[in-house]
Amino acid sequence: MKLVERMKAAARADVKRIVLPEGDEPRTVKAAVILKDEGIAEPILLTKALIEAPSNAARLASYAATLYELRKAKGLTEEKAAALAADPMYYGMLAVKAGEADGLVSGAIHSTGDMLRPALQVIRTAPGMKLVSSSFLVECPNRSVGEEGLLVLADGVVNPCPTAEELAHIAVATAETARKLCGVEEPRVAMLSFSTKGSAEHALVEKVREATAIAKGLAPALLIDGELQLDAALVPEVGALKAPGSPVAGRANVLVFPDLQSGNIGYKIAQRLGGASCFAVLQGLARPCNDLSRGCSVEDIVNTVAATALQAR
Ligand SMILES: CC(C)(COP(=O)(O)OP(=O)(O)OC[C@H]1O[C@@H](n2cnc3c(N)ncnc32)[C@H](O)[C@@H]1OP(=O)(O)O)[C@@H](O)C(=O)NCCC(=O)NCCS
C-alpha cells in the first residue's frame, strides 16, 4: 500500500480534529467534504464570519488573552492581540494551543512564512526540541532507492541557512519523522554535500562534517554518515567506491540537505524530473501544524491532513 493510503487508513482508526483556517478557499472546502465523507479527520473550517459571530465572543476573548500573554514580552499590546486573534490563522493556532483542535493545515492561500510565524509564536517547539524544521515525504517511481522508493528529505521549507548544530538537529528530527510517521524501521541518514569523505575541501563541506559529528553525539544509535554526495548516498556501487565501509552510503533513506536552497530545489527535481510524489510535514512543533504549497490540489490537502492527524496521535 502506498504511504498516503497507509496514512489515511491509520488516520481513520483514530479520528482527529484538524483546523483548516482557509475555510473560504474552494479547494479547502472540497477537501473538507472528502475528509468528512471518508472519515479521515474531523475538519474544522474557519471563516471570519464564524470567528466574529457573537456566540463565539467568549472564546475569542480567551484566545486574545492567551496571545497577549505569549507575546507581551515581545511588545504585543492587548489591542493588537485582540485583532490578531480574530485572524483565522492565529485563531486556528490558538484553538490548537487550547486543545480544542488536534492540528492545523494551511497554506493554499497563505505564504509559508505567514503560516510559520504564527506557528512559531503560538504553538512553539515541542519539549526537548530546539528547532522547527520540515521533512518532505518523497515516493519515487524507482522502488530500488531508499525504503522501497520512499525517501525522507530535509529541510525544504523552514530554515534558510542552518548552522552545523541546527543541521544536526534537523537530521535527528528527520530520522524520527521517518520512523514515526512513515514507519521506516531503520532510518539511514546521509548528510549531503558536493563532496564525499574528503573528495573536496571547503568551509561548506566542513560544516556538513561538523553537523554529522554533532548528530552522532545527539543520537549515538542512529545510522548517520557524511559528508556524502547524492549518488554516493543512494547508489550502492557508487557508495561502495566513494565511501567504503559506510553504514549509510548506497542505502540512505533519509537525505539531509545542507541548506534550504538545496533542500527546496532537491525535492522539486525529484518531483518534476523524477516523477516522485512529494509532500511536506513540519517537525519539532509542540502540536502538529502543516503547510501546503499555494499550487496544492484537493488531494494534497487531504493527504496533508491525514499526515497531520497521525502526528497528533
Ligand atoms: C521560519 C521563518 C518564517 C522565521 O521568520 P523570521 O522572520 O526569521 O522570524 P523571526 O526570526 O522573527 O522569528 C520569529 C520567532 O520564531 C522563532 N524561530 C524562527 N525560526 C525558528 C525555527 N526554525 N525553529 C524554532 N523557532 C524559530 C524565533 O526565535 C522567534 O521567536 P520569538 O519571536 O519568540 O523570539 C523564516 O525563517 C522563513 O521565512 N523561512 C523560509 C520559509 C519559506 O519561505 N520557505 C519556502 C519554501 S516552501
Structural description of this entry:
- There is one protein chain.
- This protein is α/β, with parallel strands linked by helices and 313 residues long.
- It folds into 2 domains: 3-124 and 287-311, Rossmann fold; 133-277, 3-Layer(aba) Sandwich (Rossmann fold).
- Helices cover 46% and strands 15% of the residues.
- The protein has 13 helices and 10 strands.
- The chain has helices spanning 3-12, 26-37, 48-52, 57-71, 78-85, 88-97, 112-123, 164-180, 203-218, 230-234, 236-242, 260-272, 298-311, and strands at residues 17-20, 42-45, 103-106, 133-139, 150-154, 188-192, 223-228, 254-256, 277-283, 289-291.
- The chain has a 6-stranded mixed β-sheet with strand order 7-6-8-5-4-9, with helices on both faces. A 4-stranded parallel β-sheet has the order 2-1-3-10, with helices on both faces.
- Strand 1 (17-20), helix 2 and strand 2 (42-45) form a beta-alpha-beta unit.
- Helix 2 packs across helix 13 and helix 8 (164-180) packs across helix 9 (203-218).
- The protein is globular.
- The two termini are 21 Å apart.
- The protein binds coenzyme A.
- Coenzyme A (COA) is lined by residues 74, 112-113, 116-117, 120-121, 125, 131-132, 157-160, 264.
- The site of coenzyme A has 15 residues, from helix 7.
